[in-house]
Specification:
mainly alpha; 7 helices; elongated
Amino acid sequence: MTHWKSLLVFLLLVAVAAGAGSLSAPDAWFEALQKPSFNPPNWVFAPVWSVLYVLIAVAGWRVFRKAGFVPAIAAWLAQLLVNAIWSPLFFGMHRIDLALIDIIILDVLVLATIAMFFPRDRVAGWLMMPYLAWIGFATALNAAIGSLNPG
């Protein structure tokens, strides 16, 4: 497979995960929740995630291009799946608690993916860092919303 075709595959995989997550979007339930002072406005999320998803795809593609289907790519796929599950848990099922567990697992998987990416392609590892920072923030936000809205 040519490099550009394989990049399209990685972009498509990320788009599928993003699409699955977007099936459950903020609604009246979410708007009614108490939120911490550091909760960004809703309009921030789409542009941030758009950039992050491109970085995630390029990072995975770079490692795949250099090493093929190695455990680092399996970790990349696992974190993508866990990422796709968060929105249905939080927005779809209104399960702040399960979404928090999911995002903590995501944090660990992304850290593991980065650790596996760096020895193969340092640029790929660095491309994942904004994602790690954002989901770290999202973990704190999820936890704060859960504590402000018990039950």
